[in-house]
Automatic annotation (TrEMBL):
Natural source organism: Methylobacterium aquaticum
Entries under SUPFAM superfamilies matching the protein: Cupredoxins, Cytochrome c oxidase subunit II-like, transmembrane region
Entry protein name: Cytochrome c oxidase subunit 2
Compartmental location: Cell membrane; Membrane
Enzyme Commission designation: 7.1.1.9
Function: Subunits I and II form the functional core of the enzyme complex. Electrons originating in cytochrome c are transferred via heme a and Cu(A) to the binuclear center formed by heme a3 and Cu(B).
NCBIfam families with a match to the protein in the record: CoxB
Length: 290
């Protein structure tokens, strides 16, 4: 028993060594977070997730960072134990190994502590799910249709009833626009800021997926089915995403661009879009939504 206690002391020294390493890594982690990514599009050498601009994305972002910290603590703790074992309990340093096989306190601890960690993870995890599935009342509905290989958007009669395609902006057009390569489209989906936008997503040919990193979601576009998701962008700007379901030859060339604008700018846009784009008969048809 005396030997076990001595081992316990040695283990605890390993633990404090790990804790010191953790502090160092914490400083490193802060530096990484400071090198935060761009808004609405990735940047070269990006380490972090794209800056979130919706409630759902913010919760996912925070949850992601919480998990990283928990992971870091566990990894360093295990690393500390491993180093302690290697250094202090090798054959040379510890020629007469202990024959101890059970330690009730230790066994209870290493059962309870992981359970507590999982509970601590489950709580914010379910909170994110609840926000995602909260399904608030829509201020604007937009129908999104995936095609091989572009997206089209239909706006309801309440804002003018029109539809248009959004194709990849390439060549000189892309260079002149100053928009990022392979991420920008000729026509953008435009939505008002701080309004709940619901999208109903389907596909005309094969499966696609409408994904917008800074809004914190991707949703499958499946022929013959209608998927629905909501977002409330809290910051004006231009946001880029990509088709995220391998859909064929030009899968990498059907980006998504969403412009989040003020209410007035949105009204100005719909007034223009009404004449510019093809009219839908009585506006887009939407599925019954809560
Ligand atoms: Cu696709």
């Amino acid at each position: 028993m005396g030997m076990a206690r001595a081992q316990g002391r040695r283990l605890s020294r390993g633990f404090w060594g790990g804790a010191a390493a953790l502090a160092a890594a914490g400083i490193l982690g802060t530096v990484t977070v400071a090198n935060a990514a761009g808004i609405g599009q990735p940047v070269p050498w990006q380490m972090d997730l794209q800056k979130p601009v919706t409630e759902v994305a913010t919760e996912i972002y925070n949850f992601h960072h919480l998990l990283n910290w928990i992971m870091l603590v566990i990894v360093l703790f295990v690393l500390g134990l491993l180093i302690a074992v290697v250094v202090k309990f090798n054959e040379k340093a510890n020629p007469n190994p202990s024959r101890t096989t059970h330690n009730t306190m230790l066994e209870v601890a290493w059962t309870i502590v992981p359970v507590l960690i999982l509970v601590a993870i489950a709580i914010p995890s379910f909170r994110v799910l609840r926000t995602q599935l909260s399904d608030p009342k829509a201020d604007l509905m937009v129908k999104v249709i995936g095609h091989a290989w572009y997206w089209s958007y239909e706006y309801p009669e309440t804002v003018g009833g029109f539809k248009f395609d959004a194709n990849l902006l390439e060549g000189d057009d892309q260079v002149k626009s100053g928009q990022p390569k392979l991420l920008a489209t000729d026509n953008e989906m435009v939505v008002p800021v701080n309004k709940i936008v619901k999208i109903q997503v389907t596909a005309a040919d094969v499966m696609h997926s409408w994904a917008m990193p800074s809004f914190g979601f991707k949703i499958d576009a499946i022929p013959g089915r209608l998927n629905q998701f909501w977002f409330k962008a809290e910051r004006e700007g231009t946001y880029h995403g990509q088709c995220s379901e391998l859909c064929g030859q030009r899968h990498a060339y059907m980006p998504i661009t969403v412009k989040v604008v003020s209410e007035q700018a949105f009204q100005a846009w719909t007034a223009e879009a009404k004449t510019k784009f093809a009219r839908t008969d009585g506006g887009a048809k939407f599925a019954e939504a809560k």
